[in-house]
Amino acid sequence: MRTCVLSTLLCLATAGFCFGQCVGPSQGTSGRHIRTSDGVDLYLEVRGEGTPCLYIHGGPGAGGYWLQKFSGDMLERNFQMIYLDQRGSGRSTSPKDGDYSIARLVEDFEEVRLALGIKQWVTLGHSFGGILQMAYAQRHPQVITGMVMLNCSLDLEESLRGWIPKACELLGITDPKAYTDEAVPLLDRVGDLVGKLKEKDLFWKLAYASQESEKTMDATFDEVPNFNHDFERAPLTPREYWADYRKAAQEMKMPVLFFYGKTDWRVGPEHYRGVHFPNMMLFGSDVGHVASLENTADLEKAVTAYRKRYRL
Questions:
Q1: Segments forming the whole domain that contains residue 123
Q2: Residue 1 pLDDT > 60, yes or no?
C-alpha cells in the first residue's frame, strides 16, 4: 500500500462559516468539509444507517476513499459510516503550523463528532489507525461505544522489528546479524531491508497475496484529484506515536473487534498475542494487510458477528 504507515516511515470553511460547522458539499462530490478550530478543512462523507462509526484511516495519510470503495457497501449495512480524511490527507487541507500531533488529531475527531451532532460512536481503524484509535479512546472513552480494529498495530516499534526476519527470508539472507544489531537505529536497519526488497520487486509480499492487489490499491489514490500527501510526508517525531498501546488496552472497557491477518507482515501475524482488551472478539483471517481486497468474506463475517454480539 503506497501510503501504509510502516512503509511511509521508512521513506521518510469558506468565508462566513465558523469552526465546527459543515462547509457545504464539495463541488462534484457528495462529501462535505468541516473546519477545525485551527483552520483545517476536514473532508468527510456520511453514508449508511445505524450506529455512527468513524473511520480512522492508517498511513499516515491514506485517506478514507479506498475503504469506502472496497468495503463501503458491507460496512454501511452495519453502521452509519463517517469516512474522514485526516488533516493533510486526501481531500482535506493541511495545518499551516504543521501540527500533526496525536493531541491535535484527537481534537479533530471530537470536533467532527460535535459538528455532526453525534453523542457516541464506534471507531473503526486500519493499520496505523489503531494508534490513533487508542489515543482517542484514552482521552474520550465516554463517547466511544466500541472499536473495530482491522490489521492494526498498537506498537509501531514492535511491528517494525517483526519485519526483519520476514524481509531476510524473502531476500535469502541467512545471517541476519547486521539487521538485529541494536547499536544501529531500527529505522536504518529496516530501511535498508525495504530498499533491497523494492530493488528485487518483493516489497509487496509483506502485505499482499498478489502483486495485482498492491497495484489495485495504489490505483485508488490516483482516483482522488489532487490527493493531499502532506501527512504522509510529515515526520512522526512525537513520542506518543511510538508508545506501546498494548498496555493501555487492558484498561479499555468498550467492546473491541481485533481482526488480524495470519500473513500480515506489515503489522506482524503474531502481534495479536500481546493485545488483551477485557472485552474483545478476536478474529484471525487467512489474509495479509488488506482484507477489503483479499478476504472480503472474512471481513464481513467478523464485522457482522461483532455488531450482533454487542448489539451495536
A1: 5-309
A2: no
In this predicted structure, what is the pLDDT of residue 25?
A: 37
Which CATH number goes with the domain that contains 171? 3.40.50.1820
* Exposure string over 84-113, b if 16+ CB within 10 A, otherwise e: bbbbbbbbbbbbeeebbebebbbbbbebbb
- Residues recorded for the chain: 312
Where b means 16+ CB within 10 Å and e means fewer, 165-183 reads ebbbebbebeebeebeeee
Secondary structure letter of residue 50 according to DSSP: S
State the chain's mean pLDDT as an integer: 91
Mean pLDDT of 160-184: 94
SS3 280: strand
Bridging pattern class, strands 121-126 and 256-261: unpaired
pLDDT score recorded for residue 236: 81
Domain count within the chain: 1
DSSP string over 101-156: -HHHHHHHHHHHHHHHT-S-EEEEEETTHHHHHHHHHHH-GGGEEEEEEES--S-H
Angle between helices 186-199 and 156-171 (to 10 degrees): 40
- 198 grid coordinates: 523494492
In the three-class reduction of DSSP (H, G, I as helix; E, B as strand; rest coil), residue 80 is classed as strand
| C-alpha cell at position 247 | 498496555
Contacts of 236 (CB under 8 A, 6+ apart): 9, 60, 156, 242
All three cell numbers of 96, joined, read: 499551516
Which residues, including other chains, have CB under 8 Å from residue 214's CB and lie 6 or more apart?
1, 204, 207, 208
**66-118 pLDDT per residue, tens:** 999 999 999 999 999 999 999 999 999 999 999 999 999 999 999 999 999 99
Largest CA distance in the chain: 64
